[in-house]
Each structure stands twice: as structure tokens, then as C-alpha cells.
């Protein structure tokens, strides 16, 4: 049902990854173009003394400007598509809960407190709003990390590149432990909210 929305979301994040990866490359080439005269003056090779073409600098400057503008547009489109998909999923789940409550018999309805239903449609389904905009980084994050690792390894070598990425990977266990801690706090808060809603419903 939501596959087209997820494919569009994936397309925009792929474009964003391409812009983020290619912008530093364009910046590196632009800096090389700006320092080409100085490097040619210091070089002993007479063939290297030729000035770089002016059109190359203008083209790289245009690429950097387009990259900044494109990043702004694509980033907002990416988050808009993700938030829109999460909103649609949340509304569909809320409608499913209401449709289910209208179909069950009176005995089942009596066994479920109104506060529990209110908590479901007001708090629990908001996880779609929080998760859907960022689910895409499950594959986009490792892909971008691999591309950056290859680019850094081509400049400084595989050893330093792996060392730098290894430092970043060491942070993942800390983030996972913090995520488990926050999830435990959310579960405790949800249980207390359910209990509060149940007591208010009985009152």
C-alpha cells in the first residue's frame, strides 16, 4: 500500500547522498584550480607552468552553488516525503483501531478501558511520525559511509581511513545503550499513562 511512497522517499535520499558525496569532490577540485598558479610557479616542470583554463574554475564554482541550492531543496523534499508517509500510516492505523472497535461485541468493548484506546490513538501511533522519516538511513547510512571510506582511502590510504571510520563505529554501542535506556523509560511512562487513563475511566 505504501510502497510507492517509500520508493519516492528512497529516491530523494539517494539524490541527497549523491549531492553530499559529490560536493566535497567539487570543492577539492576548485581549491586545486585556485592554487594551480602557485603550484605551477614552484614546479620545475615547464609544462606545468601553463595557467589552468578559466572556464574550469567557473564550472566548478557553478557546481558548488548548484550543490548548495540542490541540497536545500532535496533535504526538505526528503523530510517532507518521510513525514507525509508517516502521517498517512498513522491515520490509517487510527482508522483501523476505530473500525475494529465498532465491529467487536459489547463484552469485548467492556473489557477494554476507554483510556487504553485513547492512549493508543493519541500516543502510541505517533511512533510512525518519529520513525518513518528516518527509516531510510538503515541503508543510506552504510552506503554513504562506504563511499566516504573509499574516497578517504584513495587519498590517505586504507589504514588511516579504516582508523577514522573505526572511531565512529565505536560510538554505535554507546548509542545503542542510550536507545535501550530511552526505550525503557518510554515503556515505563506508557504503562503509567495506561494506568492513569484506566483510573480516570473508572472514575
Short description:
The protein is mainly α and about 200 residues long. It has eight helices and no strands. The mean pLDDT is about 80.
Distance between the termini: 41 Å
Instruction: Give the overall average pLDDT.
Output: 81
Uncertain ranges: none
Classify the secondary structure makeup into a structural class.
Answer: mainly alpha
Q: What proportion of the residues is helical, as a percent range?
A: over 70%
Strand/helix succession: HHHHHHHH
Any idea what the radius of gyration is? 27 Å
**Percent strand:** under 5%
The profile of the biggest β sheet is:
none
The total count of strands amounts to 0
Based on CA inertia axes, which overall geometry fits? Answer: elongated
Q: How large is the count of helical segments? A: 8
Oligomerization state of this entry? single chain
Describe the protein in words.
With 203 residues, the protein is mainly alpha-helical. The chain contains eight helices and no strands. The chain has helices at residues 3-34, 36-42, 54-103, 106-111, 114-122, 127-131, 137-156, 158-202. The protein starts with a helix and ends with a helix.
Label this structure with key terms.
203 residues, mainly alpha, 0% strand
Layout of strands and helices, then pairs:
Blueprint (H helix, E strand, L loop, with lengths): L2 H32 L1 H7 L11 H50 L2 H6 L2 H9 L4 H5 L5 H20 L1 H45 L1
Helix pairs in contact: 1-3, 1-7, 5-8, 7-8
